[in-house]
Amino acid sequence: MSESEPGPSPDSAAFPQATARTAGSLAVLDPALTDCRACPRLVAWREEVAAARRAAFAEQEYWGRPVPGFGPADARLLVVGLAPAAHGGNRTGRMFTGDRAGDTLFAALHELGLASSAVATGPGDGLTLYGVRVTSPVHCAPPANRPTPTERDTCRPWLARELELVRPTLRAVVLLGAFGWSATLPVLAAAGYELPRPRPVFGHGARVVLHDSRGRPLDVLGCFHVSRRNTYTGRLTPAMLTRVLADAAKAAGLDVPGDS
Prior knowledge:
By secondary structure, the protein is an alpha/beta fold. Helix content is about 35%, strand content about 10%.
């Protein structure tokens, strides 16, 4: 595609790939992502939710668009979830912000000194992440929190390019849930990291060290997702989450309490 030729329209399945690969920085990638309309089912759902709104947020204007990653461009640790929540990121416009899952995640990051606050309400709240970026394989809120394989694959170029852009500083990745694990490993393989065979299986506390073509290591850790179901049932406790994040932060070379 030459500079004189227009790119695919935002509602084309080719839009993510064509647009992501030309982004030279996260400052370009993130706003470009918010224009995407490549998955009709997700577009319809995110906009329906934004129009109907939850009663508790009836007076708020919902974002109702794809949600980009959040955190510094030179992050050493990447946390990858599933997709924005319908009344969380889809409402606030910021990843993991405005729902119980985000409350749990940011509280743990704050405890480790990796976030300026344990509370995340929306852009403008002053929240800053230190050395950590949070993102997801699917950037639109899906019905029942279940993206289809086609939607996952259509959205993949955004995550692939995000990984490429943070790669110079990236040292560790935490993958939340089986979906985050299975959706991200192929992206890492495509980025040049060699996956062992058989492919690593997801589990809470699972850990594998990958190497790129230059032999540079990347620690990949699995963690149960910070979903309301997991935290309410005790399948994932705050201590369990903090332990995985602390291990990942240490692997990434970030200072955390108790690290000496």
